[in-house]
């Protein structure tokens, strides 16, 4: 991924204190990547209205997180938000879009259609049951469609994930997918309170909670 | 067999039909499936001569999920939530269309209150849909600010829906035999506050976009569709009315409480992009009128006549009913064999027919015009592909 | 024009047309070879003026081994509706196109071809509408089978 | 009060015979300073654009990175630097890499001629106006090459639009410049500024200055590809126009030069029509001037600040345009230039020439 990130660890690591320096540079890079997630203007169905339009619009304002620079060209985008159902005919195009994006690239699957096929899971002869059958997904945001707040939760989770990664030592290594689902038993007031907490402390999403919530969710599905 | 079947490849590698006096080279360009102004995953194959569009070949199916097939495998209530995801910007009208055909076929009674609530929420959603269209229309023409203004005001309606229905986009609210919940106690107050809020905003919209000289230049005389052609091409809704045909099911075959309210059907004269723009802006005002007449007189009564778990059976035969969504006529054709699941259910969606006009409109225009026309038709792609 | 008058008026034009039972719309069943001539008459007759083909689709009656094609016609000036039904053989599903009468039929017929495999004779551009050109089978037929499709667990 | 103009080039020239090494260091420092200025100004402009756009649209804009998002542009810059650099397989690799550099170089070369204050100007050529016009034309070469070499039809279409548009509007922009040149009687940028010490050309030349300013702003907006003339990269029409296939660092070159061209345009407009670093004067400043006291008060603000204020105001105007107007269509764009702006520009130039010959303008010497 460029001369700097390829050679930097080799040059710096042997030096005294080089390891600290590498970590510092790593943090800087991660910080910049996490705070500058330019999404691709891409939406297939209902979720596009909620997670691409309503989030970007005046009330929710994606710009607060530096992510409002929606690029129409995949080359310049960092974040592919799969907003909506993916059908067989679209699948190769989605793959192409993903391949066209420049590294590092992140993928969020929003809505139940992009996660598992959602309401079109059974008896549909074209719906792909989950976008992760086609491209790797970093964060799942459940909902049908997810509320803009849920999308922000997913975005903050992704930021957290990027900040915890090691961009220089292990470039391109993917963290395991994260389900940005809310833990069970939460009420709307809890969500609002947590959102306010999150917004007051820069993206303090605890990853473990989200993963635990994911396990919870999976267990729920089994019962279902 | 004499009938031959063609392929897309054969279709777009045809001979050049343009009679350009300059021997310029025509070329094909793919617009979509991922393109900012195709509003989803519509793909248009354009044959261009420089900037001039010679031919538009729409390629559909990038979001075809087979809703009609799925409908045959579930009962009527399960089909209602699927149609939410067709034209998600008028999800309530979609719910109502299915509900209407089922109620008519199964001879279910409804109360005045149910009809009033349905009419009100559908008109609110018409405003919501047109506000979103207005914002996106501005953005497609290159001005970003309308998008934010339109969506800012749309959020207010989302709040009203959230209180009563609990959803912002896909509602699943209007059910065969009633509505899911009664309206929220603050519904009437909220709607009135919103209408008072929206009226001055409409003036602001006019100042920002309608009166702009660039908009007028870009829209007037572009994408003309005569009344006869519009009908022949199957266009309905604002597209048809902009061509001067006052065909509105709310007037001609009133359903809900539309027969009790007084409103005008705005019609255009030329059928160009400007008329389509104007008709939609005027429809927002008419919807405000309708809501104002109904909001104070919501009759008392039950809000559902059939328990949600009750099994609905429809007598065998063909049943059809249709209504006017924000985009045109949505019809549901139901073929029943007397069982709980429909034997065949077919949706006549407005966008499918309206999009067909683009081939006729866009030929000979510029790429910039094509974007304006697409936007003035106001397509929702999942509604086309179903 | 109400339903009975309408059926009478159309039957005056085309005596072979039979009223179809079990339908909430005025419905007439006609033979496939008479379709185009009747469609043109229905569109041009000043009293009928069916200028809008509101929708067109097919129903697969598997047990009776036939397709029933439905043409829903609307008259914008008069405000009445008529449903034309055409029964064709399931093994040789060929029917003349009406796309020269109502241009919108071009797409509706393509959809019916895509979903049911009905072949429209004389159609200017008959190809699949929603599915890829190399798709095998016609999904809305009742006997369509697809390994990909999941059944809902009971 | 007479202003002593001393450019960096002059100072280097004075140093050269005595201490060549110091002079070389001076040159090096200047290059570094210009580059640093360009980068910082670009980042500030991008941040300002995003914030101003947000407030036009009832939003708040970047808020999360630093205080009110001030570090947002830095985060974007680092991310773009670290992003994979894609050259499409079928693209012309050499030209694909060269194009953004050319575009950037065109803008960078203009920078050295801009007079920011009497002592803050790298080189003061006696053909300054001509130089600026000529060098800023280099940018279109980068755009054309970028669009062509990408091997993408949308890019090519965008590049062709940009080429036609920039070359057309260059004519009107130059005609507007010439009005000021005719009044000032010099092509030297510092000379033009000095000629405005009795008042700015926008009001001293009766209507001519105002008309020329309007034409210059319209043509300039078209030259830097901003709304309502952003056809070359009109998102809703051409996906991303000429830079569709660019990613990472080279996309940031295009992005940066686009924003700095806005700065260049604003700086040129303020230099020509608002006196650049010259404070607001009315009439002669010396003894006997009716407004000498007023002029004295105006002189209290340093010239560098005057330049900054004027340029910022014009940049704000450009952003205001962008977030208010929709986009024109290609043929309307050409019609506006060749049938409306150009004839007005010619007539305006003719009238100004008549004014100069007859001495019919305020405070003629």
Provide an overview of this structure.
The complex is a heterotetramer of chains A (224), B (386), C (154) and D (365). Helices cover 47% and strands 12% of the residues of chain B. Chain B contains 16 helices and eight strands. In chain B, the strands form three sheets. In chain B, strands 1-2-3 form a three-stranded antiparallel β-sheet. Chain B has a three-stranded antiparallel β-sheet with strand order 6-7-8. In chain B, strands 4-5 form a two-stranded antiparallel sheet. Chain C is of the alpha/beta class. Chain C has a domain of 90 residues: NADH:ubiquinone oxidoreductase Nqo5 subunit (Beta Polymerase, domain 2, 2-Layer Sandwich), CATH 3.30.460. In chain C, a hairpin with a 6-residue loop joins β4 and β5. Helix content of chain D is 67%, strand content 0%. Chains in contact: A-B, A-C, A-D, B-C, B-D. The interface between B and C is large, with 49 and 45 residues.
Gross CATH architecture of the domain at 3-92 in chain C: 2-Layer Sandwich
Q: Using the coordinates shown, work out and report the CATH topology of the domain at 3-92 in chain C.
A: Beta Polymerase, domain 2
Count of helical regions of chain C: 3
Mean pLDDT of chain B: 84
Order of helices and strands of chain C: HEEHEEEEHE
Please tell me how large the radius of gyration of chain B is. 22 Å
Distance between the termini of chain B: 31 Å
Q: Which chains share the greatest interface?
A: B-C, 49 and 45 residues
Residue stretches of chain B low in confidence (pLDDT < 50, at least 5 long) are none
Structural class of chain C: alpha/beta
Oligomer: heterotetramer
Describe the biggest sheet of chain B?
A: 3 strands, antiparallel
Q: Give the low-confidence spans of chain C.
A: none
CATH superfamily of the domain at 3-92 in chain C: NADH:ubiquinone oxidoreductase Nqo5 subunit
The whole-angstrom Rg of chain C is 17 Å
Which band does the percent of strand residues of chain C land in? 25-35%
Task: Pick out its properties.
heterotetramer; A: 224 residues; alpha/beta; four-stranded parallel beta sheet; globular; disordered C terminus; C: 154 residues; five-stranded mixed beta sheet; two-stranded parallel sheet; 26% strand
């Amino acid at each position: 991924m460029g001369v700097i990130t390829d050679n930097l660890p080799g040059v710096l690591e042997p030096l005294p204190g080089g390891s600290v320096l590498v970590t510092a540079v790593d943090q800087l890079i991660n910080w910049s990547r996490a705070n500058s997630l330019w999404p691709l203007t891409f939406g297939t169905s209902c979720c596009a209205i909620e997670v691409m339009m309503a989030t970007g619009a005046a009330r929710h304002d994606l710009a607060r997180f530096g992510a409002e620079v929606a690029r129409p060209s995949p080359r310049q985008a960092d974040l592919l938000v799969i907003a909506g159902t993916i059908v067989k005919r679209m699948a190769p195009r989605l793959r192409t879009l993903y391949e066209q994006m420049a590294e590092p690239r992140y993928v969020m699957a929003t809505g139940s259609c992009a996660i598992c096929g959602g309401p079109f899971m059974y008896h549909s002869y074209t719906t792909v049951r989950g976008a992760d059958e086609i491209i790797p997904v970093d964060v799942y945001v459940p909902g049908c469609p997810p509320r803009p707040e849920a999308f922000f939760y997913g975005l903050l989770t992704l930021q957290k994930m990027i900040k915890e990664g090691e961009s220089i030592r292990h470039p391109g290594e993917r963290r395991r997918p994260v389900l940005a689902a809310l833990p069970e038993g939460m009420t709307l007031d809890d969500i609002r309170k947590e959102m306010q907490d999150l917004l007051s402390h820069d993206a303090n999403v605890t990853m473990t909670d989200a993963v635990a919530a994911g396990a919870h969710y999976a267990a729920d599905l089994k019962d279902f | 067999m004499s009938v031959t079947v063609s392929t897309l490849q054969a279709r777009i590698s045809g001979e050049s039909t343009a009679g350009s006096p300059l021997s310029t080279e025509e070329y094909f360009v793919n617009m979509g499936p991922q393109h900012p102004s195709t509003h989803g995953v519509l793909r248009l194959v354009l044959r261009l001569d420089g900037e001039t569009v010679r031919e538009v070949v729409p390629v559909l199916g990038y979001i075809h999920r087979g809703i009609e097939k799925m409908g045959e495998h579930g009962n009527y209530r399960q089909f209602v939530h699927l149609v939410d995801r067709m034209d998600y910007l008028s999800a309530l009208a979609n719910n109502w269309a299915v509900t209407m055909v089922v109620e008519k076929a199964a001879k279910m009674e409804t109360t005045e209150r149910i009809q009033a609530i349905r009419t009100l929420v559908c008109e609110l959603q018409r405003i919501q849909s047109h506000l979103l269209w207005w914002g996106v229309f501005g953005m497609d023409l290159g001005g970003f600010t309308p998008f934010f203004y339109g969506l800012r005001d749309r959020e207010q309606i989302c709040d009203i829906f959230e209180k009563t229905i609990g959803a912002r986009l896909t509602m699943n609210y209007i059910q065969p035999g009633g509505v899911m919940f009664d309206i929220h106690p603050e519904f009437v107050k909220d709607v009135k506050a919103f209408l008072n809020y929206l009226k001055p905003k409409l003036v602001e919209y006019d100042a920002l976009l309608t009166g702009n000289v660039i908009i007028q230049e870009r829209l007037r005389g572009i994408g003309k569709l005569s009344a006869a052609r519009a009908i022949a091409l199957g266009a309905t809704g604002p597209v048809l009315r902009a061509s001067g045909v006052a065909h509105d099911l709310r007037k001609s075959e009133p359903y809900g409480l539309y027969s009790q309210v007084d409103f005008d059907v705005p019609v255009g004269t030329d059928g160009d992009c400007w008329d389509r723009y104007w008709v939609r802006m005027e429809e927002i005002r008419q919807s405000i009128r309708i809501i104002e007449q109904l909001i104070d007189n919501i009759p008392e009564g039950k809000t559902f006549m059939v328990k949600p778990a009750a099994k609905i059976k429809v007598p065998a035969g063909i049943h059809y009913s249709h209504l006017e969504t924000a985009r045109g006529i949505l019809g549901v054709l139901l073929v029943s064999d007397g069982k709980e699941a429909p034997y065949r259910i077919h949706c006549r969606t407005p966008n499918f027919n309206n999009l067909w006009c683009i081939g006729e409109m866009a030929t000979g225009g510029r790429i910039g015009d094509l974007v304006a026309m697409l936007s003035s038709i106001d397509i929702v792609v999942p509604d086309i592909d179903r | 024009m109400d339903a009975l008058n309408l059926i009478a008026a159309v039957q005056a034009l085309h005596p072979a047309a039979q009223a179809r039972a079990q339908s909430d719309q005025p419905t007439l069943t006609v033979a496939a070879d008479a379709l185009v001539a009747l469609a043109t008459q229905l569109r041009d007759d000043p009293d009928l003026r069916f200028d809008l083909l509101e929708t067109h689709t097919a129903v697969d009656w598997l047990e009776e081994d036939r397709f029933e094609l439905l043409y829903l016609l609307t008259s914008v000036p008069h405000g009445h509706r008529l449903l034309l039904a055409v029964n064709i053989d399931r093994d040789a599903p060929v029917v003349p196109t009406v796309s020269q009468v109502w241009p919108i039929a071009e797409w509706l017929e393509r959809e019916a071809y895509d979903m049911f495999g009905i072949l429209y004779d004389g159609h200017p551009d008959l190809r699949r509408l929603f599915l890829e050109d190399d798709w095998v089978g016609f999904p809305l037929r009742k006997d369509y089978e697809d390994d990909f499709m999941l059944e809902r667990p009971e | 009060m007479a202003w002593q103009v001393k450019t960096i080039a002059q100072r280097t020239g004075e140093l050269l015979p005595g201490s060549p090494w110091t002079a070389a260091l001076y040159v090096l420092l200047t290059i570094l300073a210009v580059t640093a200025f360009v980068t910082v100004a670009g980042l500030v402009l991008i941040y300002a654009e995003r914030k101003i756009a947000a407030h036009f649209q009832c939003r708040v804009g970047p808020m999360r990175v630093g205080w009110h998002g001030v570090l947002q542009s830095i985060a974007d810059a680092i991310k773009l630097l670290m992003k994979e650099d894609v050259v499409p397989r079928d693209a012309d690799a050499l030209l694909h890499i060269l194009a953004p550099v050319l575009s950037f170089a065109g803008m960078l070369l203009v920078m050295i001629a801009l007079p920011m204050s009497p002592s803050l100007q790298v080189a003061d050529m006696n053909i300054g106006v001509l130089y600026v016009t000529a060098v800023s034309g280099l940018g279109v070469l980068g755009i054309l090459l970028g669009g062509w070499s990408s091997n993408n039809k949308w890019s090519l279409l965008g590049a062709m639009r940009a080429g036609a548009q920039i070359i057309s509007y260059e004519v009107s922009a130059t005609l507007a410049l010439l009005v000021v040149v005719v009044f000032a009687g010099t092509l030297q940028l510092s000379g033009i500024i000095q000629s405005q010490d009795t008042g700015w050309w926008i009001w001293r030349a009766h209507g001519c200055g105002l008309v020329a300013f309007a034409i210059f702003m319209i043509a300039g907006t078209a030259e830097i590809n901003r709304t309502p003339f952003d056809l070359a990269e009109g998102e809703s029409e051409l996906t991303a126009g000429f830079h569709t296939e660019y990613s990472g660092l080279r996309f940031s070159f295009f992005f940066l030069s686009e924003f700095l061209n806005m700065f260049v345009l604003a700086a040129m407009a303020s230099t020509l029509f608002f006196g650049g670093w010259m404070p607001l004067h009315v009439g002669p400043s010396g003894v006997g001037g009716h407004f000498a006291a007023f002029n004295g008060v105006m002189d209290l603000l340093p010239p560098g600040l005057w330049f900054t204020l004027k340029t910022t105001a014009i940049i704000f105007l450009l952003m205001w345009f962008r977030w208010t107007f929709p986009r024109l269509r290609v043929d309307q764009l050409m019609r506006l230039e060749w049938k409306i702006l150009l004839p007005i520009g010619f007539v305006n130039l003719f009238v100004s020439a008549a004014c100069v010959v007859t001495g019919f303008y305020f405070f003629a010497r």
